[in-house]
Amino acid sequence: MLFAITPSGEEKSAAAMGMRRSFLAREIICQQGDTAECVYRLGHGVVMLYQILQDGRRQIVDVLDAGDYFGFGDGNVQDCFAETLTDCEITVWRIREAQSCPVWCEGFSRGVQRKLGAMHDHVTLLGKKTALERVSSMLMRLVRECAGRVCRGAPPSGYATRIHDLHMSRQEMADYLGLTLETVSRAISQLKRDGLIELPRPSQIVIKDPCRLCRLAVLH
Known about the structure:
This protein has seven helices and eleven strands. The protein is of the alpha+beta class.
């Protein structure tokens, strides 16, 4: 998971080249097949990227957090739809204008490097992890205190009562994890029976035991 980094003065100047835009939840930012004229940086909120196959099936290829860049496709055409899952603040640049700014290019390069690591983790998840491990890995993204490749120990006391909003439906989770809706629902039910999570509402979750969930997700 990527987190926003406090920008330096030069980075703020580079950001000033772009246009700040606000989006409500469930808005389409760009569409698969559009000309790739702009690049976007998520400042606040959550965005999902997905592709639609010719037969109508959907594959969610990424879930973005603050600090992530997106929208550049293959350099010519957008390869994904980008849809907001929450209210979002996004900076938009014209690609040609942004590429002329060395400070912007440096920040973009760092962002892409970080994202490559996350993509490698997701390929491993899809190729090697069981259904329960996949669902656990996705839920652990909510535990920011435990983010990273090195275990930082248990979150602060009181964490077991913290309520997290699940911005994705069960079907969207399935489309991201390469599973069926039924399999995701069974995995969540098992985690609840085992005392690792609680579900105050269908769209909310309490992670009762982050350390056990982390071990189950095989993150470290």
